[in-house]
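Sequence and structure are kept together here, with a separate record for every protein. An example record follows, reproduced without changes.
>
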Amino acid sequence: MFSFTFDKRMIYILIGILALSSIVNYMNNPAELFNFLLCIPGVLVAITFHEFAHGFAAYKLGDNTAKNEGRLSLNPFDHLDPLGTAMMIFAGFGWGKPVNVNPRNYTRKISMEKGEAIVSLAGPLMNFLLAIVFSIIYFAIYKFSSEEFLSTTIGGIILALLYATVSVNMGLGIFNLIPLPPLDGSKIIRPFLPYKAKEWFTNNEQIFYIIFVLTWVTGIAGSIISPIIQAGISGVMNLARIIFGV
């Protein structure tokens, strides 16, 4: 019987290749380097709040694990995973340090499986909420600032940072809804699967890891979800635009 073993060295090699490719690209295209730097604050915000939301949801369901481990925090250094952060910066997708939870501590009003789905969904929902909030801030500044300020370098950078934060949060939220391990989507759909499908899903988790990496390396996954992410960004920005009438 042939089996797959997921090895993090594969991702380290991938990061090295992507980082080298990015450095070459930035040297030839300063605009790309500027866009990269603009995304860094958005990445910190997106990952920090995403992981905090997982821990907070678990805490509200009765599990104190995240609280006891200091993960109910908005300090980015409590949530950043070096590997996942590097992947997010260089590959356009990534993850934070997983929040440890114990489903056995969840309230008995719901099943452990449903509790896990709720906790998993909390992360992407937080990112979508942040995308909405930062799009509102973007157009509030655009609406109430003077044309002189908006035409300055500082004004332009502030708006660019806000837009990048909207984009990163929308991207992280949608990306994590993909129903493949280790992403949140795989746990969100689990309660809705028949027993045999759940068992098959669990037994073949390592294969899904390989599929997950390969689809991103080949660009297949990006070509599928990029239009969805862009539609999400346009949706929240247009909503904020309507709110402020600009």
Observations:
- Confidence is low (pLDDT under 50) at residues 1-6.
- The radius of gyration is 19 Å.
